[in-house]
Amino acid sequence: MLPKYKRILLKLSGESLMGNKSFGLDPQIIAQYAVDIKQVVELGVQVAIVIGGGNIYRGMNEAETGIERAHGDYMGMLATVINGMALQAALEKVGVFTRLQSAIVMERIAEPYIRRRAIRHLEKGRVVIFGAGTGNPYFTTDTAGSLRAIEIKADVILKGTRVDGIYTADPELDPTALRYDKISFAEVINKNLKVMDMTAFTLCKENGLPIIVFDMNTPGTLLQVVEGMDVGTFVS
């Protein structure tokens, strides 16, 4: 089956890498992600990835920790590079060529982020993992994902979460919540649905970049999304 999308930006949360743990990395989850991503790469899809860092470090309340916001954000950026290295190792273990690029220069472990180089890697069939967010404090990895997707001219952002789409309410708390198959950017804003932070969401809206929210923790779902099957919620 021919894929619906040629170039995708896969946005993963750091928390999704924890599996059932309360902190850190679950090797089984990372291995499953690697297999799912490999299936998509073998279809000929160009894959770029942005991962959060919340499983290792989440910007804490300055009043509680004494760590100022900007400093804490840089700590979070380093956590995303650790996650990127873990996913890179898992992908290469299953035979997928990858490149890790960092918005903060770390020449021993990652290439610096260079837009043209990233696109060239994608064209050569390599998975490109973007680490360290945007390289700036006060911006989330959601914003980094939106920014990188626009820069590399991705067809879509695929936001992999623990739930299978966007609901009228939190499905983990409200069993009567209904899932949207499709929803517009305007509706998401009017109904105050938490898809991404507002900066990231506005970037996608202004640049006409669609978002699909789907369940990444169910094996094979990523492949279904890329093939255009009716899974997750399509935001446009």
Pick out its properties.
about 240 residues; alpha/beta; Carbamate kinase; nine-stranded mixed β-sheet; 8 helices; about 35% helix; globular
Q: What can you tell me about this protein's structure?
A:
With 236 residues, the chain is of the alpha/beta class. The protein has a single domain (7-235), classed as Acetylglutamate kinase-like (Carbamate kinase). Helices cover 36% and strands 17% of the residues. The protein has helices spanning 27-42, 62-65, 69-93, 115-123, 141-151, 185-190, 198-206, 221-226, and strands at residues 7-12, 46-51, 98-102, 111-112, 127-131, 156-161, 182-183, 211-215, 233-235. It has a nine-stranded mixed beta sheet with strand order 4-3-5-2-1-6-8-9-7, with helices on both faces. Helix 1 links the parallel strand 1 (7-12) and strand 2 (46-51). Helix 1 crosses helix 3 and helix 5 (141-151) packs parallel to helix 7. The longest helix has 25 residues, at 69-93. The chain is globular and about 45 Å long. The two termini are 24 Å apart.
